[in-house]
Amino acid sequence: MDDGLVPGAWVRHPTQADWGLGQVQSAIRNRVTVNFEHAGKVLIDAAVVALTVVDPDVG
Fold first, then answer.
1. Which residues fall within 8 angstroms of residue 45, CB to CB, at 6 or more apart?
2. In the predicted model, is pLDDT for residue 26 greater than 80?
3. What pTM, to 2 d.p., does this model score?
4. Among 1, 43, 50, 2, residue whose Cα is nearest residue 26
5. Which strands make up the sheet holding 31-36, listed edge to edge?
6. Labelling 21: which of 29, 36, 38, 56 has CA 20 to 30 A away?
7. CB–CB of 52/12 below 8 Å?
8. Bridge partners (DSSP) listed for residue 40
9. Contact yes or no for 5/24 (Cβ under 8 A)
């Protein structure tokens, strides 16, 4: 799991661009809960999906 995946971090899903920007709500081992702009709250397995940590001001 990426060390940047901590609560409050902003992320994007690599294959679901239409979900928009997401904010990490919790990260326990490989289970990361993210609240996305257009998809709502989604549980991600970080061992399977490599979320991209982003600067929300840059996108």
1. 30, 31, 32
2. yes
3. 0.90
4. 43
5. 40-45, 31-36, 22-28, 10-12, 52-54
6. 29
7. yes
8. 36
9. yes
